[in-house]
Amino acid sequence: MGVLEDAVIKAKGAADFAGRKTGEFVELSKLRISIAEVDKKIEAEYLELGKMVYKASREHTDCTDYVQEKATAIDLLLKKRRDLEEKVNALRKVKKCPECSHENQFDANYCNKCGAKL
Ligand SMILES: [Zn+2]
Predict the structure, then answer these.
(1) Residue 58: phi, psi to the nearest 5?
(2) Ligand 1 midpoint to CA 95 (Å)
(3) How many angstroms separate the alpha carbon of residue 116 from the centre of ligand 1?
(4) Res. 7: pLDDT tops 90
(5) Ligand 1 centroid to residue 99 C-alpha, Å
(6) Which residues lie in coiled coils (predicted)?
(7) Element (H, E) at 96
(8) What is the pLDDT of residues 26-75, one digit of tens each?
(9) Domains in the chain, ordered, with CATH?
């Protein structure tokens, strides 16, 4: 194979790699924006829940059903957040330890820091 063809193949490979990296970067940015949006919603739900519990306490009314409803909504948002984080970790090829939050290699079975099963 000639030097020129060799250089063309190498350049194509580098461009493909750079393209893939750019795609991953864009995807990661989108996921991080989504996580920030979910965080805002979670904060808003907590705030509203707190206000309603406070109001019920002042007015001596029962808010048990309301609290259950809000807790379910918050659980859904927390699950959505975990799913988004998992996607981020998969793209970054890391696996977060559920015990100590250490970032391990994606294919690790045990945490490198605390030894917990992943
Ligand atoms: Zn750990």
Answers:
(1) -70, -40
(2) 10
(3) 5
(4) no
(5) 5
(6) 67-94
(7) strand 94-96
(8) 999 999 999 999 999 999 999 999 999 999 999 999 999 999 999 999 99
(9) 3-92 (1.10.287)
